[in-house]
Amino acid sequence: MYAGQRFEWFQQVNAKLSIVATPFYWVADIPSKISGWGESNIRSRETIIKDNERLSAETILLKAQVQKLASLEAENVRLRELLNSSAILDDSVLVAEIIGVSPDPLHHQIIVNKGEKDGLYVGQPVIDALGLMGQIIDVGAYQSRVLLITDPSHALPVQVNRNGLRSVAEGVGLYHQVILQHVAATTDIKIGDLLVSSGLGQRFPVGYPVATVTEVIIDPGQSFATVKASPSALLNRSRHVLLVFSHRREEIEDGRQSG
Amino acid sequence: MVVNQGSGHWVITITLLAAVMLSILPMPLWAQWGRPAIVAMVLIYWVIALPEHIGIGVAWTVGLLQDIVVGTPLGQNALALSVVAYLALILYQRLRMFTPVQQAVVVFVLIGLNQLLCHWIQTLTGTVSPNLLFLLPALISALLWPVLSVFLRLLRRNYYVN
Description:
Chain A: Keywords: Cell shape. Chain A: Residues 98-244 form the Rod shape-determining protein MreC beta-barrel core domain. The structure holds 2 protein chains of 2 kinds. By secondary structure, chain A is an alpha+beta fold. Chain A is 34% helix and 29% strand. Chain A is built from 5 helices and 12 strands. By secondary structure, chain B is mainly alpha-helical. Chain B has one domain (9-158). Chain B has helices spanning 9-22, 38-49, 56-70, 76-97, 100-124, 136-158. In chain B, helix 1 packs antiparallel against helix 2, helix 2 (38-49) packs across helix 6 (136-158) and helix 5 (100-124) packs across helix 6 (136-158). Chain B is globular. Classes of the chains: A alpha+beta, B mainly alpha. Chain A binds chain B through residues 1, 3-5, 10, 14, 17-18, 20-21, 24-25, 27-28, 31-32, 100-107, 109, 111, 138, 145, 152-153, 173, 175, 236, and chain B through 20-21, 23-27, 29, 32-33, 35, 65, 68-76, 121-122, 124-127, 129-130, 134.
């Protein structure tokens, strides 16, 4: 245990050993595989028709929203060029399936079915359709461990989407809550504010939604306000997650190598 | 005289592997704190039943496997299960005489110790439980013990494990 904490080579051995765990997770996942199969194969005609209608309506809506996006993106790039700041690059993503969750309620970790073979790396951001979920902490050959943003040991730099106010969102061990530490009592932050990742930690890309502020308690006796927020991502309900390959990270590393 | 090599040990292996698998099976959120320490229970049963074959070595190996699978610091469950197996080895002669209820009480203490050791090690690595709920699995395990021991005894009789 001591070695696991202190030596890097030991952690690498540990990551290699996780290949032993793969069959266990595969077997433990069978019940949910069966229910998933049942859900997609045993359905009434009505539900399929209803789903189809709903999905095509959703597609039209999303397409309409995307129409504007192209021109907005171009405009954004032009404005950033005017400001001489670096352009925001597109991130590529990889879809992975959740095959296990940590059995210990104190550890908010999930296991996904992608690993070293797919080019995952430690520190890689993980998102779902609605927001940021967490980051990779262990990469095995065929599976990886993800630390969720609600884990008590996790914190990430965020900013308020409305006014750019920076803060740090920390997990407290509850799936529906993160808290912002050390927010001055006079800060302009309101219930309903969207928190997005600020990218300051150099780990998460900029601009992914993280949480929505649900509670701001300003106690005159305390020097800091208590700000609670609920994560945007469906941390305990998603089945599929997206692994983000941030191009900026590669650039930084290239820069380090050449410089 | 022929030395008793034992037979049917694959049954022990399979039950232990199944226990490790059950220990990572996803549970609904409300039941998360009460997950029975199934690996420790199966181990205690086999130690009581076959103390000449199953001991601290097996406990250590299974614990290490559980550590790898669950992702806890390597050695946490190995240490806790070894202590549990050691105590069960000391107590097995008395435990065999006990009624299921008395056995369940001893199992409660052993699993409680297992949970406590695991929690201590976790505290060392930075995860502190906010309350004593981490001891709940001991109670659940003790309640499940009569069922599990009857089931494993059936397996043992059927496959002539000795």
